[in-house]
Prior knowledge:
341 residues, alpha/beta, Quinone Oxidoreductase, Chain A, domain 1, Rossmann fold, six-stranded parallel β-sheet, 12 helices, 29% helix, binds nicotinamide-adenine-dinucleotide, binds zinc ion, ER, ADH_Zn_CS, zinc ion binding, ADH-like_N
Amino acid sequence: MKALQKSEPSEGLWMTRAPVPEIGPDDVLIRINKTGICGTDIHIWNWDEWAEKTVPVPLITGHEFAGEIVEVGKNVHDLKIGQRCSGEGHLIGKTSRQSRAGKFHLDPETRGIGVNEQGAFAEYLKLPAFNVVPLPDEIDDEIGAILDPLGNAVHTALSFDLIGEDVLVTGAGPIGIMAAAVARHVGARNVVITDINQDRLDLVAEVADVVPVNVAHEDLKAVVSKLGMREGFDVGLEMSGNQIALDQMVERLVMGGHIALLGIPPGKSPVDWSRIVFKAITIKGVYGREIFETWYKMIAMLQNGLDVRKVITHRFDVGDFKDGFLAMKSGKTGKVVLNWR
Ligand code: NAD
Ligand code: ZN
């Protein structure tokens, strides 16, 4: 089969031929139709310090996918050949305290497809049946291929009650934009999203009815008073990984406000802890998706009017994968989807 692989410990990915994976009794084989390119794939492409210490070579990359089941293991009875699906790319252990308590997303043994294990940038993917998420007819393959990052957005956005609340999202990357759309969908009052990249902020208007603010030029405090918020935002969703954005969020939050942190800072970064203590702020770190509550809620919202399709700005056939990665690296795109068939 064709597979997009990290073949050498250096910059780039290579289109190679690999054997179709052999499945075990508890697995399924999925024929891949569409995949999404993630920021993580860009780190792997660039072969930065994180990638170098995390990713084994050679490895088939990719973890955002939609496809169709073409083979089921002998212990798999609840999934059928022909079923369209996406799936959770975090492979979890079953023995940790957290897993045994049903908190699968907190399992410390988690391994990621396309990062630690063979991934989805291939014609076929082997996945434990446990990880499969069947797709209803209303959710087509290109939306199926971005459910992983939409899941990050949903997990973060649903961390705290947003109904009637004023919400600040920092970072208008694909995940930030989708989180803003989710906040709007579930009934937040004001939703403001910040970035310093105008291309990203222009895309916001296409996807969600929220207020984009370019903090390179605009004063967030002035926006807060213009919107009639007396004291500031109730909830912050940090989606940039940028220290200045986090500081700004802490500054613009109400006393007793809540922050969900998804953005990953590049290294250790200084935090003004006393400000957080005196404002009595609650902070929650968010990793991945809740398995499988996030998937359940996300699919339900998509079936009930949440529309994030316009966050997909570029589509390429997989033969043109280099153009897809170049587009992503430009920082001007939303999601980039590769078509495998
Ligand atoms: P992205 O890099 O596409 O978007 C980040 C955005 O933040 C960019 O548009 C950038 O211009 C903007 N930004 C930079 N400085 C800013 C500032 N001072 N104020 C406001 N915005 C600023 O990333 P993405 O794919 O949308 O992902 C969002 C974040 O979530 C990233 O940090 C990513 O690494 C992280 N992530 C975490 C998890 C997890 O499980 N915790 C999963 C996926 C992604
Ligand atoms: Zn991803």
